[in-house]
Structure formats: C-alpha cells, structure tokens
Amino acid sequence: MKRMLALLLALMMCFSLAACGGGGDAPTADNGGSDAQAPADGGGDAAPADGETYNIGVAIYKFDDNFMTLYRQDIQAYFDAENEKAGYEKYKVTLVDSNNDMATQTNQIQTFITQKMDAIICNLVQTSSSEQIVNLCVEADIPLVLINREPPGDEKDADGNIIDETAKVILDNPKVCYVGADARQSGTYQGEIIASLPDKGDRNGDGVVSYVMIIGDPENSDAQYRTEFSIKALKDAGIECEELVAQVGNWDTAQGQTIAANALTQFGDKIDVIFCNNDGMALGAYASITAAGRTVGEDIYLVGVDALEECVEMVNNGTMTGTVKNDDVGQANKACEVTIELLEGKDIQNYYWVDYAKVVKE
Ligand code: GAL
To answer: Helix %, strand %, coil % for the chain, to 5?
Structure first.
C-alpha cells in the first residue's frame, strides 16, 4: 500500500513538473552561436496562473553592427521593463543573429513560425526579400513588424496607386508594418551641416566641394537616400560639387578606413569632405584622416549618421564635423509598442516614422 502511494506521488510530481516545463512549441534560440538572449525554457516559472506569456521572435540582420547592437539592446530593455511592470515574464524575447545572410534569416523566420511565435520583429538582411518574408508571416497569421531596413517604396503612380508589390503587401495587411526613419532626412541633414559651414564645405577654396562618399550597402535605401540627399542638399544650396570617390563600405569601420585611406592617397588635398553613410564608417575614415596627417575642421570635413556616443563626443571636441542622430531608442520603443498593440489585437498603421536630428558642435 505504502509503495502504491509513493508511486502515485511520484507520478503526480512528474505531471506537475511537465506542466511547469512549458509547452512543446516553446521557442528556443536559433542564433548560430551568437549572444542571443534566449528564454531558458518555455515555462515562465514566475507567471501567475492567469498571466499570459507572449513569445516574440526578433531577427537582426547582423549582430556585429554598431547601430543595430544598440537597437537590439533597446528592444530587449523595453520588454524587460514591461515584464518588470507585469511582475512576471509576460514577453519572452528570442533574439537571433541572421549573420548578414538572407537564407539564414529566411530559415530563422520559418523556425519562428514553426515555433508558433506570437509576433515577429524582423530587421531584413535584404529588402528585396521583404515580400517573401511578409508572405510567410501573413500565411501563418503571425503579426510582423519590419524594422530599420525599409522595404521597397510605397511610391504612388499618377493615379495614386501604390507601385511596389511589397508596399502593397504591407499596406494590404493589418498585421504587418514598418517602423523606421526616413533616410532622405538624414542625407539632407548631412548636406545641410556642410552647407552651413562658413566656407560651405569648400575647405581648399577652389570653388568646388570635392567629396568622397562612403556608402553603407548597395541595396539598402538608407544608403541610397543618404548618398543622394546629402549631395542634393548641397546642390540645392547652390554649391558646386564634385564626386571623387563613391564606394561601398558595408557600414563597417575597417572598410570605411580602407576606402578613406585609398582616397586620401589618390586625391590628397583635393578632398574637402568625407561623407559617410554611418558613424561606424566615419570612425574608420577618421583613423585614415589622422594617419594621412590631415586635421578635421582645419583641412578636411567629416560627417556621419547615427550619433554613436563616441561620435557625439568627437563632434563636440571638433574631430568630426557633424553627425545625424538615428534614434535607436525611439525606433525600438515604437517597434515594441506596436508589437504589443498587435498582440492585443489593436488596429495599427502600416508605417511609423521616427525623426532624425542634426548633431553639430554646441
Ligand atoms: C542604418 C544605420 C547603420 C546600419 C544600418 C543597418 O540605419 O545608420 O549604421 O546600422 O542601418 O541596416
């Protein structure tokens, strides 16, 4: 009899442990060995019986990116704060590193779908794949918040119809949206920072602003717009410009350094301004500028985008001419807010825009 009771007790314990251990569809990290913050288990031990836990899959194009590192930390911090407020793990975030590879990212999104995530936040590796990713999530009926890399445009034709298929997919779907910043604005601000200098950027006084353009990546609208609109702002201010070099540095400090070094060797004092599509590459360019014996503010200008902490310091001490604040916190907060609205079944907009801001020496 005693033995029977012991057996029964043991069986009961097994059952309750299994219940605590979480459902079979609990997400696990698929992060390719990165430092993703995966949930320890699917159980949410601290969750009160009535507290629901939402699983949110977040795919970041590449963890090893200055700006997106801040952004993903902001996302995690937002949900951590919400969990703190709720008093239990209300939002379980699984962050994965897509390692700058679209095939990897597509697999990760498919895994999120198999794991029955309640919502997905995706920083696309390639915006040309946005339609495919949107369709996967729409078919699985999982809300999708795209961030940072704007899917191909929502431009309209003469009759006001959206031209681009991806934009149509986004706009047609009440559970898909894009949260970002309008890169045209950041480019314009870079150009305006240069145009408002006493010599309007013509550092060597030869009547033309000769520049080097260090480009983010080829298919990213942030890169395209920053490249285009920075120079447009100069031209709109009536300034004559000449492009000496325009090269892709993939948002990367080391590549920015090499491109700037080569340009300085080839063109020397002819270079008035080095425009960088982001601060990461501007940091690299700065290293080459000093290595070439040049001095920012004295014989050359340097601008970036993002307003990384160290670059804001450089702007304030004059070693960078200016940068443009890319509001990682504002964008991450908006992306998280709208994710929660989607989880609560609320109506959302399809596009959310967060402003950039100029950063120049105070
Ligand atoms: C930009 C940012 C870059 C890089 C890029 C990645 O908005 O300025 O530094 O993070 O996004 O898509």
So the answer is: 45, 20, 40
Amino acid symbol at 191: G
Side chain identity at residue 43, one-letter code: G
Pocket test for ligand 1, best of 214, 325, 326 (most atoms within 8 A of CB): 326
- Confidence grade of residue 57 (pLDDT, cut at 50, 70, 90): very high
Residue 49 CA to residue 71 CA, distance in Å, equals 32
**CA atoms of 66 and 143, how far apart (whole Å):** 27
Residue 200 vs residues 71, 177, 197, 231, 311: alpha-carbon distances, Å: 33, 39, 5, 12, 22
Run of H or E including 190 = helix 183-195
Tell me, using a 6 A CB cutoff, whether residue 252 lines ligand 1. no
Ligand 1 atom at minimal distance to the Cα of residue 65? 10
Q: How far apart are CA 252 and CA 64, in angstroms?
A: 9
pTM: 0.84
Q: What angle do CA 225, 222, 137 make, to 5 degrees?
A: 130
User: How much distance in Å is there from the Cα of 217 to the middle of ligand 1?
Assistant: 9
pLDDT tens-place string over residues 295-308: 999 999 999 999 99
Q: Report the candidate in 1, 100, 110, 95 with the shortest Cα–Cα distance to residue 56.
A: 95
pLDDT digits (tens, 9 = 90+) for 113-151: 999 999 999 999 998 898 899 999 999 999 999 999 988
Give the torsion through C-alpha atoms of 232, 237, 243, 249, to 10 deg. Answer: -50
**Ligand 1 atom closest to the CA of 306, numbered from 1:** 8
Nearest CA to ligand 1 atom 11: 148
